[in-house]
Design brief:
alpha+beta; 82 residues; 3-stranded antiparallel sheet
Length: 82
């Protein structure tokens, strides 16, 4: 198998960079298990949010309360575009 040329490598790099940029802009969330066994969520902000299993289940169990809290305090919260 012949070695790829400089131009082919450059084109492949540009293609990969475009894929990364598209994924970042798509707003999609990505989940990974960290080295310490936590679950990290990427795509919410600049840094991942990492919690352990029990913390995620507690947060999910409180999702209705969290949504209610957010709505009650919406006027105090910073929203995109403000």
């Amino acid at each position: 198998m012949p070695e790829p040329s400089y131009e082919e490598l450059k084109a492949r790099l540009a293609e990969l960079e475009k894929q990364v940029d598209t994924r970042k802009r798509s707003g999609s969330l990505e989940f990974k298990v960290s080295e310490k066994g936590g679950v990290s969520v990427y795509g919410l902000g600049r840094f991942p949010v990492t919690l352990y299993y029990e913390q995620w289940t507690r947060l999910l169990d409180a999702s209705d309360k969290l949504r209610e809290f957010l709505e009650e305090n919406k006027s105090k919260l910073k929203l995109k575009g403000q």
